[in-house]
Amino acid sequence: MIIAVDGPAASGKGTIARRLAAHFALPYLDTGLLYRGVAHAMLQHGHDAGDAAQAFALARGLDVEALDDEALRTAQVGAMASVVAAMPDVRAALLEVQKAFAAKPQGAVLDGRDIGTVICPHADVKLFVTASSEVRARRRFLELQKRGEAIEESQVLADIQLRDERDQSRAAAPLVQAPDAVLLDTSNLDIENAFRAALAEVERAVLARTPKSR
Q1: Residue 129: beta bridge partners?
Q2: Domains of the chain, earliest start first
Q3: What's the 3-state SS for 180-198?
Q4: Rounded to two decimals, what is the model's pTM?
Q5: In sequence order, what are the beta bridge partners of 28?
Q6: Separation CA 90–CA 111 (nearest Å)
Q7: pLDDT tens-digit profile of 150-170?
Q8: How far apart are CA 89 and CA 95, in angstroms?
Q9: CA dihedral 158, 93, 60, 107 (to 10 degrees)
Q10: How deeply is 9 buried, as exposed, middle or buried, from its count of CB atoms within 10 A (0-12, 13-18, 19+)?
């Protein structure tokens, strides 16, 4: 079974996808970490955000197994990731990595922004997780505050809105809800209720695909 979970930043899609993977004992990939990995390398090497050639080179040489989740969660890396993710060559370089992960014999859970539309268009279950930009900014602000980053909530909101615009308007695999994806708005849901809602949708889809005995 392949479960595709898409949505904008701080919508809750990552936590939901991770919990779905644990519930169904499936491999999990946060595809956003791939772009954050490239972004982190760009920053480490002092490359300009618009240097598509360097970003492509770093994407081709990315060691997926060595990605440090903690180091990739800063606001600076997130902002750079949104830039490199809009580069067609970077997306192409990381495309096969994601497709290979999804092709695991037992299935997989992947979350990102183009899983249901580009990476796994034939996924068994597709979820599009979203929330208002204000709610998402508040969540991300609290997350960054807990990490000790000095940043204003207004700046986080501005960054979220900029990322939304960039993700939705980019030429390569823009953020859109797949026609057959289930919309899950988590604006008024805590993570437990959001997970339960997502789980119910997955179980409903699985049940609908189960052959009925005569």
Answers
A1: 184
A2: 2-202 (3.40.50.300)
A3: CCEEEECCCCCHHHHHHHH
A4: 0.86
A5: 109
A6: 18
A7: 889 999 999 999 989 988 998
A8: 10
A9: 100
A10: buried
